[in-house]
Write a structure and sequence with these properties.
The complex is a heterodimer. By secondary structure, chain A is mainly β. Chain A has no helices and eleven strands. Chain A is 0% helix and 55% strand. Chain A is globular and about 40 Å long. Classes of the chains: A mainly beta, B mainly beta.
Amino acid sequence: QKEVEQDPGPLSVPEGAIVSLNCTYSNSAFQYFMWYRQYSRKGPELLMYTYSSGNKEDGRFTAQVDKSSKYISLFIRDSQPSDSATYLCAMDPGNTPLVFGKGTRLSVIA
Amino acid sequence: GAGVSQSPSNKVTEKGKDVELRCDPISGHTALYWYRQSLGQGLEFLIYFQGNSAPDKSGLPSDRFSAERTGGSVSTLTIQRTQQEDSAVYLCASSTTSGNEQFFGPGTRLTVL
């Protein structure tokens, strides 16, 4: 079993839909949980960063962490065509390089 | 405000040649990371530099790969005797000592013919 599992998609939704992206992990030592967004031919950029279980909201984006289930989610409300990108989850047990999921490719259709 | 820069943006080389990829991290960032991203794959960790400590080379796939960081700033990733399976996007990231947010460069797209 890989340390981080993420469905690669692709995921296609109509504009305005609520998008749910998910990752599962096996290493209970992971302490920090991140979501990166990567546009085509660009480097990833940090979107959300969480430490503990629970929800964190930033505009249309909500990150959710459930440590007991080893499951994290990113929700995008009122999705826009500009949200079309690959979304990568990343995890860190602390002071070591991040472990990334494979990324989910999202297309929001106008 | 300069971000992480990488050069070249694209590199096409012939099998068996050596290549050097360069990364300029954000000024003041002491941690520098190299990753490889192949088509349909996530980011594969290669090597990590933190200040003056010995680098973490645990992700390098073979002894054809090496990296150095001069003066705690610029880093060069070298791939010797390139193979077709080395074709990928090579991404560099930097972060502050205590921070977990890694800032990525745009990557170098390497194609080995």
